[in-house]
Amino acid sequence: MEISDRLLLTLSALDDWSCIAIETALDGLSQATCVRRAGLDAVLSVFVLTGHTPLPPAAVLEVLGPDECKARLCEAARVYRACQLIG
Fold first, then answer.
1. pLDDT tens for residues 4-49?
2. How far apart are CA 82 and CA 3, in angstroms?
3. Which of 20, 27, 29, 66 is most buried, with most CB under 10 Å away?
4. d(Cα 74, Cα 83) in Å, to the nearest integer?
5. Residues with Cβ within 8 Å of residue 57, at least 6 apart in sequence
């Protein structure tokens, strides 16, 4: 399973869309996948925000809201997969 899929599943399971809940979920995913937290933050920044941001990703996700974040993550993952087929 791609990390983008795991991020989507993790974020979709959240009932509480607060910065603290998002941070906790990302920390859990980091431990479960052995992917450094900085790596998850980088993927989220690129997939959801379309570039690196100095802002804490969880805080930005909280402001964007769950629907917008999940939609952006789904679309970015779809494009990423399509690019893998080309190369």
1. 889 999 999 999 999 999 999 999 999 999 999 999 999 899 889 8
2. 15
3. 29
4. 14
5. 26, 41, 44, 45, 48, 49
What is the residue type of 70? K
| pTM for this predicted structure | 0.87
What lies within 8 Å, CB to CB, of 21 at 6+ separation is: 14, 15
Q: Which two tokens stand for residue 42?
A: 């980088």
Contact 10, 58 (CB under 8 A): no
Q: Which tokens hold the place of 69?
A: 């974040």
Residue written as token pair 């937290």: 37
Q: Per the structure block, which two tokens stand in for 29? A: 């995913």
Place of tokens 């992917």: 35
